[in-house]
Amino acid sequence: MQKGTMFVVTALLLFGIALPLFAGGDAEEQADGVVELVIPHYKAGQNVGARFFLPQVERFNAAYEGRYRIVIEELPQDGYRDKIKQLAQQDRLPALIEGADHIWFEDVMVANDRVLDLGPWLDEHPEIGSLLIDDAVEYNTQGGKIVSLPFAVVRPIGLFYNETLYEPTQRIGAMTFDEFVASLGDDRIAFMTSENAWTTGLFLTSLIMDEPGGVEMLRAGVVDKVYDYTGPIWLAATTKLQRFLQDHATLNTLGAAYADAANAFMSRNAAVIANGPWMVNDFTPDAADKWSGGFSGEQVRGDIYPGNAAIANVMDYNWWIPVSASEREREAALAFLEFMMQPDELEAFMLAEGGTAPKLDVSPDFLEALAENPILSDLATAVNADTAFSVAVYDVMPNSIANEEFGKQLPKLIDGSFTPAEFLAELTEKAEETRM
Amino acid sequence: MKLDRISQKSLPWVYLFILPSVLVFLIFYLVPIVTVFATSLTHWDGYNAPVFEGLQNYGRLFTRDSFLISLRNLLWWSVIAATLHVGFGVLIAFLFYRRSTGWRAVRAAFMIPNVISAAALAMIYRFLFNNDFGLLNGFIRIFAPNFSVNWLFQSPYAFWAVTLTWLFYAVIVTLIVHAELMSIPTELHEAAHIDGASEFQIAARIDLPLCRYSIGTSVILAITSRIAMYEAVALTTRGGPGDDTMNIPIILVNSITDLNYGFANAAAVVMFLLGILTLLLVNWLFKMNKRGF
Amino acid sequence: MASGGVVENDVAHRTRKIVFGVLTYAVLLFVFVVSAFPILWVAMSAFKDNAAILTSPFALPNQLNFDAFVEVFTQYSFQIFTVNSLFVAGFATIISLVIYAMGAYVIAKYNFPGKNLLYILFTLTLLVPPHTKAQPIFSLILDLGIYDTKLALVFVYISFGMAISMFILRSTFTSIPKEFSEAAAIEGAGFFRIFWTIHMPLARTGMATAGTMMFLAHWNEFFYALLLTTSPAHRTLPLALAFFTEAFSYDYTQMFAALTVVVIPGILIYVFAQEQIQTSFASSGVKG
Question: Strand, coil or helix: what is A141?
Fold first, then answer.
């Protein structure tokens, strides 16, 4: 018994001694007048986005040495938005935040005037304002304020294919969907049903865009969302999707998460995958440890969807600054936004993660460098003046439909226990339920 | 309540002993519980001021198909948990009690599923139940070569596939029951031996009734774990295919995704009430307020 | 004739014993396989490449290639995270055990006003949805000025084990016969002595069970570790693993190597703790 007593006493004592050790302070020392911004972000550590973002932050710190310094605090991507919401609740937001859940951002942050209006700053910097895409500016203008930095770069989402498995007779963007199906033969597409069923949802989007009126319907749905999926456009597109899922899906489609879909493509189990240009990072030699089954990044080509369509959403929230940031923090944060919007930084970004800046006159150096990256130049040349752009289905669905229900109901569409009409009726019922 | 003499005398001590637990409850749980109950009667996005709307959230809940399916699933899962799951755990506890060779290794292994994160387990099960290259179907095809079932993503199998992800992981039951078996006075066994009772009779007639209390506790714990079961579903089927494997926590989390906190908290209140019901029912069934010996 | 009957009886008895033994081992083997299979599979998969995992997930690896493990260790300082996890989970468990043993003891052994209500409230904490707790806990931690410290995690984790400890420990204390304490009371032992010298030793298996359950829950906790800490100095294993699974989300080989590295210490600690508890029982002479 004495041993037990001793143990407890020792433990409590240890605890008492250890206590002061971890009661650390959180003061950001501003010695020598440098404003230091500690920014929690997921584009850090081993995250794919870190490859471009961290060096960019370093370039910023070098350019503003002695005035501003940004320190990135590593956060897992899964927890980023949750943590931002919690910090907002406590009024302890960092000075710079990238993106946000739409409903939350609008109903909580914007509605309560907790977001800094970027309008005056943009007025002072016409050179930045002139680069911004009109749709993005319009979307980010709420109640006369510009609530987050509108995009200057659009990253068209299309598809990638493996040349050694699938050789299209002509550019996919120039094909009709019927020609695309015919050219596919037995080739498989990397679909998925887990998470938000991303690659499947992109493909459905391209099918919707192929229907008359589809592009307009999607574009109109961004702000007010679409709650009724029983219309003819959805039905026709879903009917085709069901056939693709039954005839061309990879074996692991049911229950596949994004990782599984990407894996199917990068192990030559799938010939085609729908995804955005940022995936080119996985096709460079330093990502070779993700490849298997004889796959190599050199086998990959990029294109847009049949029917000359691509997905691009500039109607989204980008970097924003909370009003809770102090005057000096705001200065530093705005300096960072300004830094990111410089032409050479934008070009560097597009070379690293793809995309085009419609209102930027790119430099010859940029075009030269772009030509050296075959996949990115594939994508750049695939887009022409007639290409139709639209948002993805995820941008027009209420949160839980986009993130949960769509993928959750897909297995029943695949195994035929739902007809396309039943599938859509189910989604419609669920969407209705979210309105209260 | 009538207090017996000993309790009366020790009342200051009793309060001193219960105080830390009460403090933990007050600090960490009182505010959330009150919030849940109060806001379940409101329309609330979780941030702006809630608007009172009476029982409307409950009306919505009880007319929603996915909720009714959740209740049905919960009923079945509770029955399975209380019988097969707890039964399995009790059986293993008795085998451990007999100290068959190697029981310690088995006990250590039994704990492993509780050490691995739920996400990893879910991933393993996705592979295990895969139609094309999963271990389960590979095994079944030895006997029935044309067998083809997508366990986690096909009605009606998904329900059973989800059930299998927790059914045999009854280590908590085993530990609780084993602990109580250990406290049975050896004299009882010796006496029974002298009377000529077989091992089996001792287990069935003496040990089992004396473990009533820990078995009851296990049943409560097993059922409340089903009420609160989130990861086992969210990381495998997410309630699908369709609504086949829906349960209340999934509804709750999905509603939060849409910032319908008032509605989500109505679901939470239902979970509370089901928990209380379970507690009272099992207490009564197992006569847990009375002591044997 | 009579002796023949005895022999027959003996044979039947022995057959029954053998059948019983075989059944016992079949069940134990089943438990072992079902429980150990997941981690064995994870560890095994760390030696296979992506394609092999995808196409034949249950085949044995062709070769023993430790590259994935080397990579995992060179990129992350797992020692720090392991120590952090041990520290946080260990302290939270010890403190919780003290608090809840006291609470469960008086609930099991004494009558006092509000007892049943308190027991119901305590056990229902199991059903409090995590999202409703997050906000009040976060502001509490900020008010206490312990944001981004290990202490914050210890503090919050103490609250986690409430329901399960109450279940287990109340059950344990109730199962201790009244006669023990009555005898001690007659001899003049006070409240604390009856608790400390009579009940605590007899409740050790229950304490060990509750402690193990709580420790493992703390060991695997992710949400509050993410919410309440930011710096790598206070990072725990589950949080580190989240960075990993994200970085290597579709590099199964790396991810399984990381998973193995994270899980194995947990198992070792558990086995080690079990042995310790066993020995302490043996030396103290209490059956258990």
Answer: strand
